[in-house]
Amino acid sequence: MSRLSLSADEVLRTTRAVRKRLDLDRPVAMTLIRECLDIALQAPSGSNAQGWQFVLVTDRGKIAAIADYYQRAFAEYEVSAYQPMEQHKDNPDMAETQARVLSSAKYLADNLGRVPALLIPCLQGRPDTPGLPLGAMAGMFGSIIPAVWSFMLAARERGLGTCWTTLHLDHERAVAELLGIPDDHAQVALIPIAHTLGTDFKAAPRKPLDDVLHVNSW
Prior knowledge:
Elements: H1 8-14, H2 30-40, E1 52-57, H3 60-78, H4 84-87, H5 95-111, E2 117-124, H6 134-142, H7 145-157, E3 160-162, H8 172-179, E4 185-187, E5 191-195
Antiparallel strand pairs: 1-2, 2-4, 2-5, 3-5
Helix pairs in contact: 2-7, 3-5
């Protein structure tokens, strides 16, 4: 498969969280996923420790089991104060956008069992260790998130859609048992992978830079 003709800036601006536009009926070649992971391994990690591990799930039974855990977690999330409509209920300007986000998230939850592949990035150690200093926790996440983002950018360049999700972590131990993930490794996300329905993704609406930039002081 040929790559999309996109500049680095275009890839960065148009790599979206893809849910409703995942092609759930088209297989994804292992060679494409491996290409993206090879690129991910070039990301920086703290002290160059490279403590990352990636669990790729293509077995239909295991995907179905993970999807069941995900749907249970989404049912709780949907009525919680953390879902996007609740978080922005006092901001009518965001209402339409956040309603679309929630609809998209529900679609993914309803259809996760049909996704061709799931990627679970894991890190060595447990960031939820009681008493772990903030700096150590930040360093652990900072040593895997760049690699996962590199994977997602590489996927975009190859016409693949991805989405960073974390709801399955409500059932992390059950998923770890299902996949044989060691107790001393923490899952940090669940990334669905599929070809996209069309490739014409656009930059998303964002707050103006001056609303979030602080120079020299807050």
